[in-house]
Amino acid sequence: MGQELNPIDPEGHVALGKIYRQLREHEKAIESFQAALSLDDKHQHAYNNLGLVYIDLRLFLLAIDMFQAALEIAPENPAFYNNLGYAYDQSDRFAEALEAYRNALDADPAFVDTHYNLADAYLNRESYQEAIQSYKAGIELDGGDATVYFNLGLAYQETDELLNAIRAYEKGVSLDADEVEAYYRLALAYQKKSDHVMMHRYLDTFLEKAEGIARFEKQYLTAKRLRQQTSGDR
User: Is the pTM higher than 0.70?
Assistant: First the structure.
């Protein structure tokens, strides 16, 4: 790979760096993007892609520097603002993340990744109403995927909007039946609604799908206990 690369073509180095990043050969990806910048120190996409590698490596301060460098060259690029916002958010600098995300949406209100990243940031900070608004804004643009609907369900459940939570979870599992935790959350939502028939249905599905999966061990034990306690309910 790279044998036919023109050594004085920065675009070739960027393309090669992207391949190395996909292969998770981060050191070689960094070398390729740095090679591109040695040939063209105004190559906005080399800076941006280098920042993405640093995010992969959880080197968020370096990533922030790269995205800021890209924005100095292309100050209206929503993707660069979005990536900067994510790096700030992962660095627990939420105010700066929020500003970057807002700049991304000012540049392109339809940049859907920013709506979802912003929603995730709000969700992680227990700002559930703001999270709901951002998830819904993203869904209006691209319809959403299973993970988006699962997270939207979490936000609704935390605000005790149980019917909306159920609708979101059920939409999520209709898109991806392997969203295992969604079945557990659905069971708890139906328990709160005192609908034990539906609660049992989702408990049984969760217990079947979660058995033996280490990260669901705690929920599995809780679900098993709840199923046993309510086995006589109708």
Answer: yes
In terms of Cβ atoms closer than 10 Å to its own Cβ (0-12, 13-18, 19+), residue 85 is buried
Question: What six digits make up the tokens of 98?
Answer: 């929020």
How far, in Å, CA of 32 to CA of 7, rounded? 11
DSSP assignment letter at 231: T
Q: Minimal CA–CA distance to 185: which of 213, 214, 226?
A: 226
Sign, CA torsion 146/150/151/153: positive
Which residue bears the tokens 């675009």? Answer: 11
Question: Which among 10, 81, 8, 9 has a CA at the least distance from the CA of 48?
Answer: 81
DSSP 194: T
When pLDDT is cut at 50, 70 and 90, the band that residue 8 belongs to is: confident
Q: Which pLDDT value is given to residue 145?
A: 96
Q: Which two tokens stand for residue 140?
A: 């209006």
**CA atoms of 148 and 168, how far apart (whole Å):** 9
Q: What pLDDT, on the 0 to 100 scale, is given for residue 33? A: 97
Largest CA distance in the chain: 75
- 123 and 114 Cβ atoms separated by less than 8 Å: no
Sign for the pseudo-dihedral over CA of 71, 145, 200, 218: negative
**Predicted local confidence at residue 2, as pLDDT:** 46
